[in-house]
Amino acid sequence: MEYTDLLRRLSLQDEQLAAEVVGAGPAPDSSLDPKTLALVRLAALVAVGGAGPSYGAQADAAVDAGATVVEIVDVLVAVIPVVGLPRVVAAAPKLALALGHDVEEELGILPGR
């Protein structure tokens, strides 16, 4: 599918296209490789302030697609100029937990503080 057709279908809120891309796979005829797609989705999750379990699913998808833990954490740093430091600070413990590190416990931070 040509990018112009994809933009048109997105602009028209094409329900069939939405159904095709709701799953974990790439958009039809996507030129993004699975690793890049997983990292982009992780960046979007940070931008929208996603829930903790979503970070686990996206981090797993990124690792399964070949991303390293360093690349996954680099996504946080890369989006700071776009989403702002507060959004990244809020996402960091969720992503850390998804990667197997409880930052709050490791730093001795009490829940709710």
Notable features of this structure?
7 helices; mainly alpha; 113 residues; 2 domains; single chain
Can you tell me about this structure?
There is one protein chain. This protein is mostly helical. The chain folds into two domains: 1-28, no CATH class; 32-107, no CATH class. It is 69% helix and 0% strand. The chain contains seven helices and no strands. It has helices at residues 3-11, 15-21, 34-48, 52-64, 69-83, 85-98, 103-107. The longest helix is centred in the middle third of the chain and has 15 residues, at 34-48. It is elongated, with a radius of gyration of 16 Å. The N and C termini lie far apart (49 Å). The model has no long low-confidence stretch (mean pLDDT 84).
Largest sheet: none
Query: How much of the polypeptide forms β-strand, as a percent range?
Result: under 5%
Count of strand segments:
0
Structural class: mainly alpha
Gross morphology: elongated
| Mean pLDDT figure | 84
**Radius of gyration, Cα only, in angstroms?**
16 Å
Question: What percent of residues adopt helix (DSSP H or I)?
Answer: 55-70%
Q: Distance between termini?
A: 49 Å
Number of structurally distinct domains? 2
Helices and strands, in order, run as: HHHHHHH
Number of helices, counting only DSSP H or I runs of 4 residues or more: 7
Please mark out the parts with pLDDT under 50 across 5 or more consecutive residues, or reply none: none
